[in-house]
Amino acid sequence: NAGVTQTPKFQVLKTGQSMTLQCAQDMNHEYMSWYRQDPGMGLRLIHYSVGAGITDQGEVPNGYNVSRSTTEDFPLRLLSAAPSQTSVYFCASGRPGRPYEQYFGPGTRLTVT
Amino acid sequence: AQSVTQLGSHVSVSEGALVLLRCNYSSSVPPYLFWYVQYPNQGLQLLLKYTTGATLVKGINGFEAEFKKSETSFHLTKPSAHMSDAAEYFCAMGGYQKVTFGTGTKLQVIP
Question: What is the largest CA-CA distance in chain B?
């Protein structure tokens, strides 16, 4: 198993540009989530999904959209990038019955100029 | 509301010394508690977890943590630090659908 994969690893955007961060898992996990990590702030939940077709907002959802059309994929969309979205983004998944035990991807480092 | 507080954003220990990373939580229901480790430029890896049962939990790489309900604490310890333990450690508390993370403690191991 590849586990949780994320692409790209690094990305530089200009203010106002849009992009999609990709996340995929091959463990048949129902639960998937997106976090952003900023210095001194730990990890903050952006959006999460408890299964295909079901998504919900986390702590810091503004400026981000998600969808979950399949169990495997959970892309994160930035509609109009802002410098405040410069961060490291982590995708995670959780196995059935234990969604809180999360398996993390390697992260995407995003810089918005 | 649930919250997790990690005391000390940076901790330095000498190689071979005791490692103690502090975590306190606030929850209105019995919590599920976790410690994750993050090595530089990597994702987070589960170190250990407490769900129910034994309050002393052993994890990978010689780490352990003790759940103390009376003190609302879940401190992480290791008897003897190794250079490879240098990393950032996150305490987390889980509900069924959401996990709340602490702000992290960076552990420096001095040779």
Answer: 42
CA pair distance B74, A47, nearest whole angstrom? 27
- The answer to whether B96 faces chain A, any CB pair under 8 Å, is yes
Q: What is the pLDDT of residue A89?
A: 97
Q: For residue A104, which residues of chain B lie inside 8 Å, CB to CB? A: 36, 43-45
Q: What is the mean pLDDT of each run of 10 residues along chain B (111 residues)?
A: 90 97 90 92 90 89 94 96 97 82 95 95
Phi then psi for A83, rounded to 5 degrees? -55, -30
Residue B109 amino acid letter = V
For the beta carbon of residue B20, count every other beta carbon within 10 angstroms: 13
CA atoms within 13 A on the CB side of B16: 1
Integer Cα distance of A92 and A81 in angstroms: 22
Q: How far is A101 from chain B (nearest CA, A)?
A: 8
User: How many residues appear in chain B?
Assistant: 111
Contact A42 B97 (CB under 8 A): no
What gap in Å lies between CA A110 and CA B85, rounded to an integer?
27
- Tell me the pLDDT tens digit for each residue of A62-86: 999 999 999 999 999 999 999 999 9
What's the CA gap between B10 and A44, in Å, rounded?
A: 20
Among candidates A42, A99, A104 on the partner chain, residue whose Cβ is nearest the Cβ of B96: A99
Which residues of A fall below an 8 Å CB-CB distance to B?
Answer: 4, 31, 33, 35, 40-45, 48, 50, 56, 58, 90, 92, 99-107
